[in-house]
């Protein structure tokens, strides 16, 4: 169990390393953000950013997306994994926003999670980025980093990771720390080749210590 001092060190280190961490999905408004995050499931932000300009140029409003043919959306996003299912969800969520929310992306969690293809993680990102509501969205990077550092247990599911992070860190820091955890995992503590040898948090990272010990043994 990490102490408050150690948790503060983690937060301070991530702030120092990635002071400008932010949502890297290109978007101009809450609707584009909802779509981009929905498309990013099992796909990189970089890849999503390559297909969304063409998608939003073809269907620039939620009303236009709602009336689009699924096949048209598929054609524009087919470079992304699971594109057929995602195309159906994008059209369906657009229809729901038009029919049930007067064309305006809802700003409450319950309504967001009721949109097709929008789960808790997507809702958290939209609440945090578009509506500036404190939230700690847990993606693969956040989960990996929090478990490697021992903030969360290896067996914790995504919801448990989110709840633990919200308990361990101040509410007013959730949104920014969420992005800093992502940047830390995306650019430093990578899944396959983490930069353990240069990591300022190595002294408290159980995974990093194992990796470094293994490296010494093999060399």
UniProtKB/TrEMBL annotation:
Keywords: 4Fe-4S, DNA damage, DNA repair, DNA-binding, Endonuclease, Glycosidase, Hydrolase, Iron, Iron-sulfur, Lyase, Metal-binding, Nuclease. The lineage of its organism: Bacteria, Bacillati, Bacillota, Bacilli, Bacillales. [4Fe-4S] cluster binds at residues 189, 196, 199, 205. One of its GO terms (molecular function) is endonuclease activity. This is Endonuclease III. SUPFAM superfamilies: DNA-glycosylase. The keyword Nucleotide-binding does not apply. DNA repair enzyme that has both DNA N-glycosylase activity and AP-lyase activity. The DNA N-glycosylase activity releases various damaged pyrimidines from DNA by cleaving the N-glycosidic bond, leaving an AP (apurinic/apyrimidinic) site. The AP-lyase activity cleaves the phosphodiester bond 3' to the AP site by a beta-elimination, leaving a 3'-terminal unsaturated sugar and a product with a terminal 5'-phosphate.
């Amino acid at each position: 169990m990490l102490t408050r001092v150690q948790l503060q060190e983690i937060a301070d280190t991530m702030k120092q390393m990635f002071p400008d961490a932010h949502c890297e999905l290109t978007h101009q408004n809450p609707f584009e953000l909802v779509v981009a995050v929905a498309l990013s499931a099992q796909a990189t932000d970089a890849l999503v950013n390559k297909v969304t300009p063409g998608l939003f140029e073809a269907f620039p409003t939620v009303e236009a997306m709602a009336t689009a043919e699924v096949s048209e959306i598929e054609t524009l996003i087919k470079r992304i994994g699971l594109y057929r299912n995602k195309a159906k969800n994008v059209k369906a969520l657009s229809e729901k926003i038009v029919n049930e929310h007067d064309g305006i992306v809802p700003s409450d969690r319950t309504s967001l999670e009721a949109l097709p293809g929008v789960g808790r993680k997507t809702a958290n990102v939209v609440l945090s980025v578009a509506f500036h509501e404190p939230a700690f969205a847990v993606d693969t990077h956040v989960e990996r980093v929090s478990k490697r550092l021992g903030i969360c247990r290896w067996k914790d599911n995504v919801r448990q990771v989110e709840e633990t992070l919200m308990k361990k860190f101040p509410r007013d820091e959730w949104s920014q720390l969420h992005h800093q955890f992502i940047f830390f995992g995306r650019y430093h503590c990578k899944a396959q080749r983490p930069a353990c040898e240069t990591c300022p948090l190595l002294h408290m990272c159980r995974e990093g210590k194992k990796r470094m010990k293994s490296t010494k043994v093999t060399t």
